[in-house]
Structure formats: C-alpha cells, structure tokens
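Field: COMPLEX_INPUT
Field: COMPONENT_COUNT = two
Field: RESIDUE_TOTAL = 656
Field: MODE = joint
Values follow.
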Amino acid sequence: MKQFINFVRKEFAHVMRDRKTLLILFGMPVAQILIFGFALTNELKNSKLIVFDQAKDPASQEIIARIEASRYFEVERNLSNAAQLESVFKEGKIKMALVFPAGFNASLLHGHHAQIQVIADASDPNAANMLTNYVSAIIQDYQRSLSKSSLSPYRIIPEVRMLYNPQLKGAHNFVPGVMALVLMLVCVMMTAISIVKEKETGTMEILLVSPFKPILVIISKTIPYLILSLLNVGSILLLSVFVLDLPVNGSVLLLFAESMLFISTCLTLGIFISVKTSSQQVAMLISLMGMLLPTILFSGFMFPIENMPYLLQLFSNIVPAKWFYIIVKSIMIKGLGFSAIWKETLILVAITAVLLIISLKSFKIRLA
Amino acid sequence: MQLPAVDDVSFEVKKGELFGLIGPDGAGKTSIFRILTTLLLAEHGSAWVDGFEVIRDYREIRKIVGYMPGKFSLYPDLTVAENLNFFATVFGTTVKDNYELIKDIYVQIEPFKDRRAGKLSGGMKQKLALCCALIHKPSVLFLDEPTTGVDPVSRKEFWEMLNRLRMQGITILVSTPYMDEATRCDRIALLHNGKILSIDTPENMIKSYPEQLYAIKADQMYLLIKSLRKYPEVLDCYAFGEYAHVSFKIPFEEYLLEAYLGAEGLSGIEIKPTAATIEDYFIKLLKT
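Field: COMPLEX_OUTPUT
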C-alpha cells in the first residue's frame, strides 16, 4: 500500500510540475465551453424579429413591447402585408416572425382564447428552437399576468412553424458534447503519453528491474488524471450553469458518478495506447487522430448518427463518447435518473474492463 | 541475416568480485547486461544470477539486483531526494534503513537534494543513479558504462566508490569502453563483436604480453608510422596517444633504427621501452 501511495505521489509530481501541460488541462475545458457557449449565445441575443401585426390593439402592442424589452430580440419593423414575409426570410437577416391575427385583443378578451403564429428560420435548428422557446415564454408570461386579474384563465396559443427544417434535426445541446470531447482529449492523450514517456526516458528499464507490479503502475498513472478530470467536469458544469444559464436537470451526483466512469474508460484507453506504442509522438498521434476524430464524428454531438450508413452506425457503438453523450444528455437536459441510462452505463463498464484486461496482458515485462 | 549482438559468451563472476566487461561500442556489453538483468531473452543458452535462472526466476532476480543503465534513467522532474525515496519504496525499503550503504556517495550530492535530477551535472547524475541502484542493498550490482560522459576526476572518484562497495561484499559487474579503467577491476572480460576474446585478471593479461613494447615518437607522426611499417624487423606498429607502440621480431639495435628513421626524413625521434597495457593486449588479440 505504501508502495502504491508513493507511486501515486510520484505521478502527481510529474503532472503538477509540468506547468504548460497543466495550463492546457485546465484552460482547454474553460476555453471550449466559452467558445462553444458564446458562439451560440451571441447569436441569440438581439436576434432580429419581424412583426406582422394585423390587430394593432392593446394586447398585441403589449406583447410586442415585452419582446422588445427582452435582451433576446430586436424588433425590426412592422410588415404591412403577408406577401412580404417570405421575401424577408429569404434575405436571411430575420430569424423570426410574429403574426397577430386581426381582432387579437377582442378574441382574447371575449373568447379567453387567441392565437399567434410564430415562424422561425430553422436552417439553424438550435437557434430556431431556442428563439421559439423564448417567444413562447414571453407570451406565457403575458398570459399569466393577464390571468391574475380574471377568474377564468386566458389562453394564447402560439402556433409555431419551423421554416426550412421542420423536424429540427441535429438540434442538440453542446455542453454534453463538449464534456465528452474534453474528457476524451485530456484523459486519453495524457495517459497515452505517460507510460510511453517512461519507456522513452529509460526509467521503465529501471522500473522493470524491480519488484513492482504492472497493475500498480497503471493505476497510479491514472489517478492524478482522474482527479484533474473530475475538477474539469466541475468547472464545465459551473460554467454551463452560471455563464450559459443551462441548468442540470437531473442529479448532479449521478452525473459525477457517470463522468467518473467515462473518465476511467478514457484513462484505460490511454493506457492501452501507451502500452502498445513505443514513442510519445506515435502515442500522441494515435490519440489525436484515432480517438478525437471518431469522438467528434460518432458521438452524435455534431453529426446525427441516425443519418449515417448502417456500417458506420455499427461502428459508432464502440465509441465510448457516444454512450457518455447519451448519458449526459439524459441526466442534464432530460433530467432522467439511473433507470433510464443503466444500459449505456453497462456498456461503458464493459469497454473499460476489456481495455484494462488487454492493457494488463500486453504490458511488456521485458524490453523486447 | 541478422548479426547476433552476443554470441557464445560464457563467464563466471565470483561472489564479491569487481568484474569488468571491457570493449568498444557495439561489442555487446549492454546486451549481456540486459540478459542478466532479465530485460532481454537470449535466443539460446542460460544464465544464473546469485543462484537464480534469468528466465524462470526473473521475479527473484529483480528483487536482489541493482541496475544502472548506460543512459541516465531517473526522473528528471523529481528532485534528488524524491528520486531516491521513490526507488527505495519501489523495493519496499526506506532510505533510512540502508543509509549506511550509500552514505559515502550520498553526502556528496546531499547539498543538492532539493534540486531536480535533470538539472544535475553528469558526475552528480551518475552518483545519484548509483545511490538509487544501491538503495535496496542489492547482492549483485550491474553498472552499464557508469563512467561514460563523466569528467576524469569524477571517473576516478566513481571507481573509488566501487572499490569501497566491493569491500562491503557486493558483487559488481561493470562495463566500460575505456581500457585504462580495466586495471581497477579484479577480473575483466575483453569483448569484441559479441564475443569474449579473453577473461583474466588485468595483471595476468599484461604479463602475458609476449613481446617487449617500445614507444616511439617523432615530429611527423604519420610519416613515422608509415616508415616503421616498412622496416623489416618491425612486427607490429600502431598509434597510441602521442607515441607509436612498436614490437619487433628480433632484438633490435636502437641506433640502426634511429639512423633509418633519420634517413626517412623524420626529426625529434624518441625511442623508449614501455610496459604493455590492456589496450595493447586488446589490439594484439584483435590481430591474432
């Protein structure tokens, strides 16, 4: 045990003394979250919205004023006829249109019930989805304030139309994707280098001529990165909650537990690469090309897997990030519990176990 | 066909002996060390270290030997003390337990114990590496070219340290490409191209040198050797530092040779008898 603790301490020293790498390890997730986050939020702030107000009554004016007051929209101008709508969207500057039918206020007051048509440019499905959500929220807010002063509730039904991409394919949230990506990068690459580094510097030669156990070396190499990566998960979640306003809907504890599992998978993958290669450069290349690319392509984060050819869909099953992406989405966004993701969890456990066994088996106890 | 690194090598080292493997680069020294320290598997043959067979009992051997590879192989980003502590715990011991053994060496690097190993000078690095190899009190110590790339003063110190370790009963196998270090060993094996040319004590090797050697110097070295090789009574002649070492087929007259060399256009001629060294012996072996 003392031997093990000493091993771990040594690995920590290696990690903590390499300042540049440490900076990358902690800086990368923050940078990625901010880049991905603000690339999206910047566009959503002050989106151009056009109004076709056929009613021009107090209710429609109030809703327009509320929308204008929000930081998400910039009301561009009023249209005078319906024919203009299409050409305005085709110009591409307008992201959303709001159509009030004639007599909007009257039907609301007398029938307690009115309709608004919301038309969104869904060529960017993410943005379209979010914008309609914003508008719906503002309308609902107005509806609620209206209902307070009355006995029977008022209902305003936004009728949403997604232009260009009605099914909103590929509309995912990016935080789970970035999480999978960052953990994959940090864990696989760093551990991939770690053992091969000892081979290159020759310290492995001395270590071999000693009573150490391979499993001890493997585990002690992974522990610093496990802890660092958990810190990264924490910083990503903090950023997404406080900077990007994306809450964690499910259990944070479960999310951390699953992250730990995925980190372990990545670490064993890194160890596997490290055991199989003989130079740091090769290890780096394999983890970048061989791991990062499939993660981006086959996790479902950027490209929908359902649209891929059958063979590639099959292949995506061995990409750990795919399963982790599903897990994080389920917990974070859908707010589901463990019962919904046990299958994905089991797959990750299996991948980890297989990699660990192969790594241990192929750990060379001699030089050649 | 691949050239074997080591071929038909057989030797025995006595307990408590300081045994040297001497040979130029590529002679097979490192390969022999790696086979004995269980790092490489030999295609044929067998070897034992302290009663353990190198293939079957590799775990046992790894517990009892100390190994210092030819290349500096400690953690450059750990400090001197951290390296030492780490290797102590790897072998399940502590620095305190075996401090006596390394004390002589460690006191020399102790002032730098908080310095990172990568920032030490060459001689310091070797001393630290030796400490790390000794920290678990090995019964056999394998040192692969410990003095290569080390300054002459540190080299001398290093051999004195080895001598003291031998006094404490540790069997030491050391390799070196420097022939002048051979005399510091109890016995040596001369290696060339993966084969052992000779095993004996350095004294016996020197004694068994058959001819009287002469060291001859002149202002024009190249011309001197060329002229000497043409001289009919010369058996062998080669450059040796600033002199040419020459042996003769029959007892020769110094004035005749001097006259001959003078006629060849050489100046500043100096002729003196000299004792053979291990290097002379090695050269002789290579030619026969």
